[in-house]
Amino acid sequence: AIQVSPASPEARTRPVFKITNNSGASIVNNVKIENLTIGKALVFTGTLGAGGTLSLDMQERKIVNAGTEDMTNWQGEFFELAVGANSLKYTGGVTVGIVTEWRDRWF
């Protein structure tokens, strides 16, 4: 779980997920990041090649696949992190590395 600790409960933050495909095979139509805490998910429906990196930027509402913007292959919604603990889930079918970046916010 990720812990977000702003001083104000209204100060939500939007993360960036960087997903690297560590397998020898492409991932097709099967990259999903869910925030189980708030019940929202973003699904990448394109192809992430072997060794490629996919960036899901929730703040800028932008998807970059292997260095190229790819805004046509997605479903769901760009989501924020709730204040406090967040349960996140990856679904994808192959082994990946995931880096999550965010900034605590406050008013």
Task: Work out the helicity level.
Answer: under 10%
- Give the overall pLDDT as a whole number: 88
Can you list the strand order of the major beta sheet?
A: 9-8-7-2-13
What's the alpha carbon Rg, rounded to whole Å? 14 Å
What does this structure look like?
This protein is mainly beta and about 110 residues long. It has no helices and 13 strands. It has a 5-stranded antiparallel β-sheet, with no helix packed on it. The relative contact order is 0.40. The model has no long low-confidence stretch (mean pLDDT about 90).
Question: Which secondary structure elements does this structure contain, and how are they paired or packed?
Answer:
Blueprint: E1 2-4, E2 16-21, E3 27-28, E4 31-35, E5 40-44, E6 47-48, E7 53-57, E8 62-65, E9 68-69, E10 74-76, E11 84-86, E12 88-91, E13 96-101
Antiparallel strand pairs: 1-11, 2-7, 2-13, 3-6, 4-5, 4-12, 5-10, 7-8, 8-9
Main attributes of the structure:
107 residues, 47% strand, five-stranded antiparallel sheet, mainly beta, 13 strands, four-stranded antiparallel sheet
Task: Quickly describe the structure.
It contains no helices and 13 strands. By secondary structure, it is mainly beta. The protein is globular and about 40 Å long.
